[in-house]
Amino acid sequence: MKEFLTFKSGKFYFNENYDSSQIDNLLIRATVLNETIVDLPILPELASQIQPDIMYSSIAGTAAIEGNPITGDDVKKIAQGEEVDIYTKKDQQEIKNLIKAYALLSRIDPMTEPFNLTEEFICDLHKVITHDIPDKNNVPGKYRNGIVYVGDEAHGGMYTPPKIIDDIKNLMREFIDWINSDEVLHLNPFIRASLAHYYFCIIHPFWDGNGRTARLIEAIILQASNINYVPRELSNYYYRNVDEYYNSFSKSIRIKKDATPFLKFCIAASADSLSRIKKTIIYFIRKFSLREFYRFEKQKKNITLRQFELLSLLLDSPVAFTLKELIETRPFSILYNNVTTQTARRDMKKLVSNGLLIADENNKYSLNFKNPGIKPGSS
Questions:
Q1: Which residues are CB-neighbours of 153 under 8 A, at least 6 positions away?
Q2: pTM for the predicted model, two decimal places
């Protein structure tokens, strides 16, 4: 633990200790899930499909925590150069800045040694995040000199961070020395990243953009520690659980001795995000494998071209459907509107008997994801 006496805000503590009884099980779960994901055979084609969607939704999530209404789908449009006029210029500029900031995250490769934070790096990150956003006080990359208030009564009360620039400068220097100290550098990266997030927010060194900067600092430390995907996914969890996010911050401030409530929330967020990512990756791997299996079945003439195209269509848009919907409803009707009901029924029977589709008690058909190619009744 590091203790520092400020000029105007009393004693300030940087404490790497926490209540392990509340954290360790979550930490083990997050670590094991990350190791599982690292070992999954993710081809570049799969990674290129997974990463952008996570990034767009995460940018929307971290911005939404601060009140920005732009959705993940519209973030994607902005990233592709579109102007989405239903939003204010300020909201759109915030998203453009975050897209650039997340591009910085993408350029950070896994390191053999822990990532060292610097004040220069943090200020440059803040410049990107708050560039060209009108604010009567905020200067991108420059520390504030005045009072700000963090939080509200609905989330544990208000917190007043250090007020004067001399205290902020000194605290940022102490923060950098502490977060890069041997004791903290060799903590589990989930812990170190969460501590960086928390204590940066406690100092709250800028007039605006502190939350977005803190969440990106956390993401960068994780990214550099070979923790993939989750650095982008975390902000989605924080947004979905925004009340708990703020409450855990307030609880940690009140107990003062350590940041256990906030760490517990952040590690739970990492574990949940990793679990979601694992399911997504496994689903993509399964889709990729099934598509290749369907091609093989077509080459062997076990299925027709039309049946292959139907299976491929269902891979991209998995839904359950009836025979009537197959013939009359798009997109299936593109394949089946010129065939007889008897032919469509024969196709379904063949695909079910080959273990490629399954039929439920209501005669609704869907892809056989669980045991593809295993014929009904086979052991």
A1: none
A2: 0.84
